[in-house]
Amino acid sequence: MAARTKYCTSRLKSFVVPLSNYSADTYRFPVSFFELLGLLVNMKGMTSDAVASECVLKLLEEGEIKLVGRNESQQLTQFAAHFTVETDGAQGCNFANFMPFGEQTSLQRAEWIKFLGVFANLETRANEVYSSVKENYLCLARAAASKAKFKPVVAWMGYYDGIWTFTNDSYKLQFIEDAGGENIDKSINKISYNISSPDDLEALHAILCTVDVIVDETYTLDPASYNKSTFLENIGIEDSSCFAFLSNQSLWRFDRRVQNSTVLDWDDGAVSQPQLVLADLIEALFPTGNYTTTFFRNIAKGEGIISISANMCDRNASTPLEPTMLACQS
User: Fold this and answer.
1) Same domain, yes or no, for 101 and 134?
2) Cα angle at 101 between 97 and 105, to 5 degrees?
3) Could you give the number of structural domains in the chain?
4) Is 135 found in the same domain as 188?
5) What is the mean pLDDT of residues 189-214?
6) Residues 146 and 215 in one domain
7) What range does the domain containing 175 cover?
8) In this predicted model, what pLDDT tens digit does every residue of 138-167 receive, in sequence order?
9) 266 vs 45, 98, 213, 288, CA distance in Å?
């Protein structure tokens, strides 16, 4: 048999599939895609323990996966492929760019499982997973649209360096609409407000008096200590009489699942399984009290975080993770 020819040019790379092994640049890399395909057994290297996967952490702890320096280019050549979400800087011939974060909708982000499936001859499995996720997501969206008697107004916002900004990320805005809500950004003339400016602060408070639900995406080094008091201090609220989101206790963050205080499953499992995000938001907008959220926590009710650790892996890591399908009737 003729030897397989591999190519590596500025425009073309080739890989021998299925991959015998691979590594990943695990700084903000959604390893849950590998889990859904059942590929953790072939993962032999990672550049950081900054992952939100219990089973990847367990394999690292057991020595099945080795830590490799992300700048150690020679060490990275030992792997048949090295997956990364970073496109800056020099890349080796075995680098494969995995880019779900560049997509505009949550389902487009989830569809990147098909890209990974090609590297393992698992196109059928990838298509099945994506189809299940998409079908469940769309069913939940239809159900939310049909049962909503009114559309709660939602402000998805974050605080950075003294400035509150309403999100303009399209996939977040789409999540709110698909959950049956209305985004605040459709009714305001600017998205950023400096709390050191009395006029800005007054305008911001006036806007928030029209809001039913808030998603606070403010970055913090210590999610466990970020609570309702932190939010109120950051936003300068003293008299809470006009704020429905406070009287209704609907103040949310997406840092419920976190590893080592800084690694959020929002950047991992929430990318590969957006139907769980949508279900969380439907509960936030139309609370039933009988659904436990996966990624979101309600800090208005004092809900805390879940710390992800290796001892939480309760399944065989060599088998595919089945996507969570939520009961839905539309």
Assistant:
1) no
2) 130
3) 2
4) yes
5) 95
6) yes
7) 130-312
8) 999 999 999 878 999 999 999 999 999 999
9) 23, 17, 19, 23
pLDDT tens per residue, range 172-194: 999 999 999 999 966 688 999 99
Closest CA to 158 of 253, 261, 278, 259: 253
Give 66's strand partners: 45
Pairing of strands 297-298, 251-253: antiparallel
**pLDDT by residue (tens digit) across 240-269?**
778 999 999 999 999 999 999 899 999 999
Asked whether residue 197 falls in the same domain as residue 277, the answer is yes
Q: How far is CA 175 from CA 29, 51, 106, 275, in A?
A: 21, 24, 8, 10
143 and 290, same structural domain? yes
User: Which residue type does 233 have?
Assistant: E
Asked whether residue 187 is domain-assigned, the answer is: yes
Task: Output the DSSP codes for 165-185.
Answer: EE---HHHHHHHHHTT-EEGG
CATH code assigned at 204:
3.40.50.1980
Q: Give the CB-side neighbour count of residue 205, counting CA atoms within 13 A.
A: 17
Cα–Cα distance measured from residue 128 to residue 38, given in angstroms and rounded to the nearest whole number:
13
Give the DSSP H or E segment for 157: strand 153-160
Count of alpha carbons within 13 Å of 143, Cβ hemisphere only? 18
Q: Does residue 58 share a domain with residue 152?
A: no
Q: Would you mind telling me the total number of residues written for the chain in this entry?
A: 330
Other Cβ atoms closer than 10 A to 17: 13
The verdict on residue 121 lying in a domain is no
Specify the DSSP class assigned to residue 94.
Answer: T
88 and 144 co-located in one domain = no
Let me know if residue 7 belongs to a domain. Answer: no
1 in a structural domain: no
Query: Which of the four pLDDT bands, split at 50, 70 and 90, describes residue 330?
Result: confident
